Known about the structure:
Layout: E1 25-27, E2 31-33, E3 42-43, E4 49-57, E5 60-67, E6 80-83, E7 90-91, E8 96-99, E9 105-109, E10 113-117, E11 126-130, E12 136-140, E13 146-149, E14 157-158, E15 164-165, E16 170-173, E17 181-188, E18 194-199, E19 204-208, E20 228-231, E21 236-239, E22 244-246, E23 255-260, E24 266-271, E25 279-283, E26 299-304, E27 308-313, E28 317-319, E29 329-331, E30 342-348, E31 350-351, E32 356-360, H1 365-373, E33 380-386, E34 391-397, E35 404-405, E36 412-418, E37 431-432, H2 486-497, E38 500-501, H3 504-510, E39 517-520, E40 524-530, E41 536-542, H4 549-561, E42 570-576, E43 579-585, H5 592-597, H6 605-625, E44 640-642, E45 648-650, H7 655-664, H8 682-686, H9 693-708, H10 712-718, H11 728-738, H12 743-747, H13 758-771, H14 782-791
Parallel strand pairs: 38-42
Antiparallel strand pairs: 1-11, 2-8, 3-4, 4-5, 5-6, 5-7, 8-9, 9-10, 11-12, 12-13, 14-23, 15-20, 16-17, 17-18, 18-19, 20-21, 21-22, 23-24, 24-25, 26-27, 27-37, 28-29, 30-36, 31-35, 32-34, 33-34, 33-36, 39-40, 40-41, 41-43, 42-43, 44-45
Helix pairs in contact: 6-9, 6-14, 9-13
Bound molecules: 2-acetamido-2-deoxy-beta-D-glucopyranose (NAG) (9 copies).
Amino acid sequence: MVFKISHIFLIFFLFPFQCSSHLSSLKKGSSLSVEKHAEDVIVSSKGTFSAGFYQVGNNSFSFAIWFTEMQNQTPNPANIVWMANREQPVNGKLSKLFLLNNGNILLLDAGQHYTWSSNTASDAPLELYLKEDGNLVLRELQGSTILWQSYDFPTNTLLPNQPLTRYTKLVSSRSQSNHSSGFYKCFFDDNNIIRLDYDGPDVSSTYWPPPWLLSWEAGRFNYNSSRIAFLDSLGKFISSDNYTFSTYDYGMVMQRRLSMDSDGNIRVYSRKNLSKNWYVSWQVVHDPCTIHGICGANSSCIYDPNMGKKCSCLPGYKVKNHSDWSYGCEPLFDFTCNRSESTFLKLQGFELFGYDNNFVQNSTYKICETSCLQDCNCKGFQYTYAEDKGIFQCFTKIQLLNGRYSPSFQGITYLRLPKGNNFYKQESMSVKDHVSLVHLHKDYARKQTSHLFRLFLWLTIVVGGLELVCFLMVCGFLIKTRKNSSANQHSYHLTLLGFRRYTYSELKVATKNFSNEIGRGGGGVVYRGTLPDQRDAAIKRLNEAKQGEGEFLAEVSIIEKLNHMNLIEMWGYCVEGKHRILVYEYMENGSLAENLSSKTNTLDWTKRYDIALGTARVLAYLHEECLEWILHCDIKPQNILLDSNFQPKLADFGLSKLQNRNNLDNSSGFSMIRGTRGYMAPEWIFNLPITSKVDVYSYGVVVLEMITGKSPTMMNIEGVDGEGTYNGRLITWVREKKRSTCWVEQILDPAIGNNYDLSKMEILVRVALDCVEEDRDIRPTMSQVVEMLQSCE
Ligand SMILES: *[C@@H]1O[C@H](CO)[C@@H](O)[C@H](O)[C@H]1NC(C)=O
Ligand SMILES: *[C@@H]1O[C@H](CO)[C@@H](O)[C@H](O)[C@H]1NC(C)=O
Ligand SMILES: *[C@@H]1O[C@H](CO)[C@@H](O)[C@H](O)[C@H]1NC(C)=O
Ligand SMILES: *[C@@H]1O[C@H](CO)[C@@H](O)[C@H](O)[C@H]1NC(C)=O
Ligand SMILES: *[C@@H]1O[C@H](CO)[C@@H](O)[C@H](O)[C@H]1NC(C)=O
Ligand SMILES: *[C@@H]1O[C@H](CO)[C@@H](O)[C@H](O)[C@H]1NC(C)=O
Ligand SMILES: *[C@@H]1O[C@H](CO)[C@@H](O)[C@H](O)[C@H]1NC(C)=O
Ligand SMILES: *[C@@H]1O[C@H](CO)[C@@H](O)[C@H](O)[C@H]1NC(C)=O
Ligand SMILES: *[C@@H]1O[C@H](CO)[C@@H](O)[C@H](O)[C@H]1NC(C)=O
């Protein structure tokens, strides 16, 4: 082999951002050298991409492709889109990349050994050149046969129009600074489905699509074996398994990259040009705690949209490596098999995924505890109530993996610990995750872009967090369900019964020609009806909708996939001509508003507390847990319906949007104030950015109304009017009363009577007053509200 290291074929480029000279391609017999990594760079025709040696550590380099950086810019690893030798960086001395005369590309480390090669061979004249789309191609000079291209060997990044195929996969980096292969993989599995796997040092598992869903339940099609997916340059992702999404900035001309990040999330990043920063324009997982292995073994993960995710060790465990949580936690005690030396610690709302050693369908607590004690390997058990079946289920665990607290999980985990130790305090060390703190940037589509992009007109640039506006973000077409939750099983029944499209004439018959009106709102009129299968339904006929059929259906399909026991169930819809109708389950006990004003005292203290908690849970779900984050924007007692057990069901969400879309397309953000006088947060009046905290505010007002029995709108009539003080009367009144002694009796709705829990009452009032703080940053998030309300149960 002859290494003719020459630069005969160099073509010198004068480049706007780089004064140094660069190559347009590498020909046979020539090489790039690490010592000259600043100049020995292959640049694409318009300069968008560069390929060469990229410094990844002290004296260590990888042969990489990156978005060209400006000369004075500090190198940003986020610009790297491909690496030849990610596992083995080469030395900063004597390392070279050759295009040999036999047609092979070789990477030589420190002048001694080869760390990477393209395994190609050809006698024809060849060139290695970088296309403007970031694809590094080895091709014949005549005939332009392609022998090798970097697009066929992605690392953790896909560029627009670069296909993910059956032969390729994305593998995350170990960390943001260590580019070696990490634990997370994205690929087409043997069932033709794109999935995400955690492939850790000890265990591996699939975490997306949610593993307890069958592929069709996750909206996937597993019979198309072409196994191909790509992100197009406008921001739409299309896959042969029918999984598709569009970025928030869909349609705008952007530089984009899709990356399997080191924290297991797939994100699309966009930027206008190289002088701008990358921002996240889409991500697949919204609650990072659902990503397996994220906090390691024996730990718990908790997610707060403002703070990001937090890992902690379980009680009795200590962290293994403070700088890397993927190592997890190890026990502070020795396990004993002696039954009489074990005790169990109750962790409310804590869920572990996987490693169930034993499952008992209909179990008592005692049976569950005994079955754990009998097994030396049992580290704890999960005990959950399946509401629809009316039984308790028992899962014993041999490993404590993928643990997380979640406001919507209604089971309990019991952790096995040795007796006599005081492990009841969780180790307080916890980490904040920086990646998940990346703020989603929501840009408005420019008016002139296209009418197609109206969809995105409401996206507001939110200054302080991940909150999205009153818009069903099309972020993933997954059915959000939960393995153990009864709400989930209920929804399966519904799926079997059929979420369906009704014809107009069917609904006309069902409602006896729309005769039995039971409610009326801004969005339309609600009628009671009986469906052909004899189910009682609430049928909402939307006012004159100018919305197109496609758009309406897209939204219906999103609403359909939401799932929470405190959310009203949608059974179907009708779209025919100008008719837009939604079919919901019928709620016997009417709305919270009706019950509060009823003379028959239907709501005792326990019911009111449960309603406050259930409503908080569903809002936490909508704001933080479901895959399309949603703001309700119209929380009021009229929209909280009560089922036969007086459990709250939130209704009417998303509908104001269905109605108002056409009024909104001429402005950035909300041109119209949404919500109802008396319950609206000050942000609406002062024209401040709208975040999930507007719902928190309205929730606080509703809770105050439940406690006092006084409606904020009534208070308004007697008192001050004027926009600034808006709903302030009820709140001010409660705040003032609270300063006196025996305040509880003074504010309490007489209908509640004396039969209440004083400490719970105090917590509820305190939480409600926190929720109605003028300053939205002081208000808690809904999951914090859930936590506070649960803490005293
Ligand atoms: C890396 O190099 C910098 C200076 O170039 C030096 O300060 C630092 O200690 C080095 N780090 C290691 C781990 O060698
Ligand atoms: C990067 O991660 C790999 C795999 O975990 C590890 O072997 C290597 O030592 C790490 N490199 C650095 C510089 O930390
Ligand atoms: C997949 O998508 C295509 C086009 O949108 C549609 O025709 C087809 O019915 C879908 N398949 C399944 C199984 O959903
Ligand atoms: C399979 O997927 C490919 C790529 O998305 C598409 O072109 C093709 O029509 C699909 N085939 C079937 C049978 O759906
Ligand atoms: C990047 O875009 C901004 C605004 O869109 C423009 O002012 C700037 O000149 C652009 N920079 C480059 C290097 O193209
Ligand atoms: C902790 O993790 C860091 C980063 O991966 C690694 O450099 C260090 O060696 C680890 N320490 C221990 C004690 O394992
Ligand atoms: C987690 O804890 C168990 C004991 O409950 C222990 O056997 C295991 O090694 C721990 N895992 C790690 C990664 O330390
Ligand atoms: C189990 O522990 C109890 C109390 O500590 C002790 O009395 C008993 O002997 C132990 N049994 C075995 C088999 O070690
Ligand atoms: C569950 O078990 C209890 C007692 O063993 C029994 O009475 C009940 O019928 C069982 N329920 C179901 C749904 O199997």
